[in-house]
Amino acid sequence: MNVHEEIRRQLGAYLDNELTQGESQRVRVHLEDCPECRQVLEEMREVQRITASLKFVGPPEEVMQELESKLSVRVPRRLGWMLVIGGAAAWLLYAGVTALLHARMPTWKELIPGAVVVGFLLLFISILLERLAELPRDRYRRVKQ
Amino acid sequence: MVETPAETAREAVVEAEGDFVAFFREYRNRAFHFALQLTGSREDAMDLTQEAFLRLHRHWGRRDPNRPPGPWLYAILRHAIVDWRRRLRRDEVLEASGEGAAVESRPDVLAERQERAALVWEAIRRLPPEQREAVILRDWHGLSYKEIAQVQGVSTGVVGSRLFDAREKLRKHLKGRL
Fold first, then answer.
1. From residue B87, how far is each of B65, B78, B92 by CA, in Å?
2. Which pTM does this prediction carry?
3. Residues in contact with A23: Cβ distance below 8 Å, sequence separation at least 6, in sequence order
4. If you measure CA to CA, which chain B residue comes closest to A8?
5. Choosing among B30, B154, B163, B175, which should be mutated to test the A contact, i.e. which has the most A CBs within 10 A?
6. Distance of CA A103 to CAs A92, A113, B147, Å?
7. Interface of A with B in 63-92 (CB under 8 A)
8. What is the pLDDT confidence band of residue A9, given thresholds at 50, 70 and 90?
9. Which ipTM score applies to this complex?
């Protein structure tokens, strides 16, 4: 590839400010002596200018509002799960310590919150299993930030 | 007052979720327009935007706070659009017909019908999908080569080549018509 061809391939990146300082300088020097490349650059710039100014129809506002509501409703969900897991762990610890220290089973008053905790735990496990089953099909989890 | 670990964790969650809603408000139109530009359908673009935000929300907890989440959203949305294309089995139809992307994107997505704008958009629509994405992400959404590389899952060198090829096609197609 000769210098002219090499520089021509860099004109887009030059236009986008994606070249190093040295590369940009090399392109500038070439442009001074090459009317063909100047013409190509000018045409690219014009197409880019029109592309950037294209105006597209907007999103349906009512559907966007619905989506925002849906996402806002999901906001406390993660916090809810944290409290459920934290509460369940604390109760299980309490029940275990009570049974060990006093060598007795918890009283019925202690068992009521325990039932609630176990109920939440079962729900949590069922959702967890569902998510795990979905995991191999979820291609989006591999999309890196 | 000393915060307990639970309070600290709760505040982190609230902050992250608050960030997500703020992020949604900032990026909702950009995401919609990216989907619209690649599908040509307002309804499909809205469905894909919704799908992308819901998926992003699911993985929001593992984001790197030191990196902007914008390209991540574009990458997820792009995956959804690729799946959408596959579902419609349009790739095979397009390849067989040799019409590039012309079938996929209708011209009525433009809000203003100006002749020069319509000519350029028509030329962009005819580019192969990867080149069209690169041009749109660079020239309309303003992403850097590095960010486009992240969205398309390729190196910055490949992005440069795609943009070069795309611009050569656009330039030649539009020569003397603008």
1. 34, 14, 11
2. 0.75
3. A10, A13, A14
4. B164
5. B163
6. 16, 20, 62
7. 63-64, 67-68, 70-72, 74-76, 78-79, 82, 86
8. very high
9. 0.79
